[in-house]
Design brief:
Length: 266
Amino acid sequence: MTLFPTRGFKFLPLFLLALACSFSVADAEDQGKWIPLFNGKNLDGWTPKIKGYELGENFGNTFRVEDGLLKVRYDKYDKFDRRFGHLFYKDQFSNYRLRLEYRFVGEQAVEGPGWAYRNSGAMLHGEAPETMAIDQDFPVSIEAQLLGGDGKKKRTTMNLCTPGTNVVLKGKLFKPHCTSSSSKTYHGEQWVTVEMEVHGNGIIKHIIDGKVVLEYTQSQLDPRDEHARELITKNGGVMLSKGTISLQSESHPIDFRKVELMILEE
């Protein structure tokens, strides 16, 4: 991200060009502002990784920008065929707040798993996409799970799922794959604003409307998972204090209107 667009500014003084090129998300710590990770125009700064395809191959134009929205769509899929995807932001982060505005729309892709109905997520403390196998379902990460209601039953959002990871929840190591938040249910195609407050290897909070609906601490790699064991060796231990951020494609269309981040002090 640059402070000033460089196209059309061939004659800017060199020091201004240097300033424009050096500005990054990390400068938000001094600015104290929300910084957009999604610019509303294109996928600059983001890279797709879809199961079965090489990093950077956006099969079926799954991730796209239309009408100022970051959209996840499956109209070019004949069937979903477990082609789970993730859209990775270019930088890694440790201490930050992440804010999303999302809505589920339309119908689920043909043969999408039943559990993936109106289901997506934001992956935190994730592995680098370059370390994922071509046929890997999900990056090893901490997932803030986004769920929509079916119009009838209660279904919380901002839950926790842990592909290849564990956390400490209520003072104990939590090994099950998912746990629910205390949020209300959001039916239909309404916009929902959520936040994740992340403090390195410390506390992570899931927040809706200023209310903490789930919190946990000590994010860590799970030695029961084969790929996570490889990452433990590379990482020099199990504890996670930083990582990538990615957005999911799990077979149900979803729109993101805003993806914003604020760097927090360590």
